[in-house]
Structure formats: structure tokens, C-alpha cells
Amino acid sequence: MNQPELNELLSTLPLGEIRYFDSIGSTNDEALAWANKGAPDLSLIVADEQTMGRGRLDRPWFTPPGTALAFSLILRPTADEKPHLSRLVGLAALAITESLQKLGLTPQIKWPNDVLLNQRKVAGVLIELVWSGEDVVCVVIGIGVNILKRAVPDTDILRFPGTSLEGMLGHPVERENVLRDILASLTALRPQLSTDEFMNKWGEALAYRGRQVKVDMGGQTVVGRLEGMISDGSLRLRDDNGKSVTVRFGDVRLRPFTDILRK
Ligand code: BTN
User: Fold this and answer.
1) Ligand 1 pocket, 164 CB below 6 A?
2) In angstroms, what is the C-alpha Rg of the chain?
3) What are the DSSP calls for 129-159, one per residue?
4) Which end of the chain is more exposed for a tag (fewer CB within 10 A), N or C?
């Protein structure tokens, strides 16, 4: 991958400016800095390697050179999009699932930000906001996809079992094509962000629907049957007493089957 190839590959998509790095700390950090300096809507940062890649809740995210996709997209939300910023994680996750479906795979979204293949995490999304006073002026959508088996860290340091496209397909794939497909899906889905159709698509892609799950909300846990999401993208569970419970953040695990996979 290099800058001219990337420019050519993405030339038909409605993107802003594109910046490529052989190695970088974190594409999200670079995107946040660029956003503050006026990056146009849909500007993109792509890196071959990240040395300080970050996941949600400041967890480390590994991007060894030549093995993965690591990129960040800067959105300048319109007035119509601003009431729906909490749906952007779904926009990114859906774009990833659509691109993986094109490879013949059956991805699911583990709420809120993981994409799974066969119950194993293949991709993650990290959304970060740039504020001006009370107003969100930019959203950085960071996406990491494990392309080669070597992108998946040792299971000992993983909180959830991981996989790669190579591991699932049995052969390597061209990461450039996956990047183009994700960006094509994301830009095509973006105008639907405020619609019920979008929420339906997102809901249909959710993993563990109808199953008993445990959500860890940073110490506090909720257990219940996963019913779906409400309109802001929060998760809706039904607890054992039949009460509806809304979860705004947390880590979802199947109860108790996910733990078996870790062994
Ligand atoms: C998660 O699963 O917690 C989210 C992982 C997000 C990783 C991507 S890789 C590109 C971008 N840069 C980062 O430092 N993180 C995101």
C-alpha cells in the first residue's frame, strides 16, 4: 500500500483528502489532530502499521505491518445527522458487515462496536468526537480489521477470541479491496442514518438476538435476553423478571457460552 495506489483505488468514492502512513501511533490520534486543523468532511487516514493503536476504553489495538486494515475517517456531521451521532458506530459496523458479506462471509455485530465471524472478533470500531463548546464539529470513525492471521494477537492478551479474514476464508485477501468496499458501503449508507430502515438493517445484523447475554457496564452487570435496540442505538434486554432494561454502554457476552471459546 502507498499514497498513489490509495488515491487511485479510492478515486471513484466521494471522499475528502486522503493521507497514508507506513507507520503511525494511531490513525485516530492523527485524525483528531487533523480534524482540529480543518480536515474536510470524509477525509481519510490509512496506516500500514500502528504502534499505539487504541480500542474502546483505551484498550490496546494491535496493527503489525502488512497484516491488517487500520484507518480513520473524519466526518463533519450535518445538522440532520447531529441528533443521530450515537448511530455512527452502527454505520461503521454495518459498512464492515456489508463488505465481509461480499466475500461470502456471514458477519454479525456484537454491540456496540465489534464485528464477529463465527463468534470471533474480526474488526472493531472506535468513535471519537471533536467538540466546539456544546457542539460536535467532527466525528472520527476508526476502523481496524484483521486481514491476515498474523494480525490477531495471542489469545492470552485478548479479552474476546479473535480471528482474521485469512483465518476464516482459508486464504489471504487483498486488504485494499476490503478498504474500498467498507468506504463504499459507509458513504452509501450515510444518507440513511436517520431512517427506520437504517435501524432495521443494524438490528438485523446484531449478534445474540433472542439469546441470554451478560452486559458488563464497568463493574455493574445486567443479565437478560437480548431483544434489540432502541432508536438511539442503546441495547434493549429483557431481564429474568420480564422487565425491559436499556443499556447505553458495556461489553456484551453470551451467557455462558463465550467463555468456552476462550479455553
Ligand atoms: C475496539 O474494538 O475496541 C475498537 C478498535 C478500533 C481500532 C481502530 S484501528 C484504526 C483506528 N486507530 C486506532 O488507534 N484505533 C482505531
Assistant:
1) no
2) 18
3) EEEETTEEEEEEEEEEEE-SGGGSPPGGG-S
4) C
Question: Ligand 1, closest atom to CA 57?
Answer: 3
Ligand 1 binding pocket includes 250 (Cβ within 6 Å): no
pLDDT tens digits, 113-132: 999 999 999 999 999 999 99
**CATH 2.30.30.100 given to domain 212-262:** yes
Check pLDDT > 50 for residue 65: yes
Query: Which runs of E-coded beta strand occur in 12-82?
Result: 18-24, 43-50, 68-75
- 169-218 residue pLDDT tens: 999 999 999 999 999 999 999 999 999 999 999 999 999 999 999 998 88
Q: Which residues have a Cβ under 8 Å from the Cβ of 189 and sit 6 or more positions away?
A: 91, 94, 95, 98, 198, 201
Q: Closest ligand 1 atom, CA of 47? A: 10
pLDDT of residue 259 exceeding 70, the answer is no
Give the model's confidence band at 257: pLDDT under 50 very low, under 70 low, under 90 confident, else very high. Answer: low
Q: What's the gap in Å between 231 CA and the centre of ligand 1? A: 25
At residue 158, the pLDDT reads 67
Q: 3-204, superfamily in CATH?
A: Bira Bifunctional Protein; Domain 2 (3.30.930.10)
Q: Is the CB of 146 under 6 A from ligand 1?
A: no
- What is the whole-number distance in angstroms between the Cα of residue 244 and the centre of ligand 1? 31
